[in-house]
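Duplicate of #3305? Posting structure anyway:
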């Protein structure tokens, strides 16, 4: 599964702690992250992370584009709920695209933990089954 991890500055430590606590689960997936979040996760957990641009410089939009292409299976986005950010429209757009594509998205630590536990139980495996089925159908019609 492709998991996107994003945290605003005041939430980065929470997210890193979550990844440390559930390292065994996260290590079984491909992790994508915005720039500074990805840097911290990689540094503190030694897990591989596909790092995109920093959030304010377009990283949220890059993750949004992956969501729009249905290439992300779950998003954990720990937002700072107490400040308004210059790139708020990018944040809203990403969350909207998660709803468009029916991608599970957690915006606080409590929900993030539930999502990780779902990953652990393979609750989202149906997404891989659908991906594979569609790829096979596509290659069948092309061949
Ligand atoms: O601002 C962000 C998401 O909106 C996070 O970006 P960074 O991971 O680069 O700090």
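Output from current build:
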């Amino acid at each position: 599964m492709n998991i996107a991890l994003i945290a605003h500055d005041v939430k980065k430590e929470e997210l890193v702690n979550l990844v440390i606590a559930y390292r065994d689960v996260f290590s079984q997936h491909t992790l994508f992250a915005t720039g500074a979040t990805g840097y911290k996760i990689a540094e503190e957990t030694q897990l591989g992370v596909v790092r995109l641009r920093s959030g304010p410089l377009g990283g949220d939009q890059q993750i949004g584009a992956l969501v729009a292409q249905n290439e992300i299976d779950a998003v954990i986005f720990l937002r700072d709920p107490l400040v308004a950010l210059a790139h708020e429209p990018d944040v809203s757009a990403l969350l909207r695209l998660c709803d468009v594509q029916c991608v599970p998205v957690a915006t606080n630590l409590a929900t993030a933990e539930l999502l990780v536990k779902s990953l652990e139980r393979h609750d989202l495996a149906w997404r891989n089954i659908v991906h594979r089925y569609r790829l096979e159908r596509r290659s069948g019609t092309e061949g």
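Confirmed duplicate; merging threads. The radius of gyration is 15 Å. The chain has a mean pLDDT of 95.
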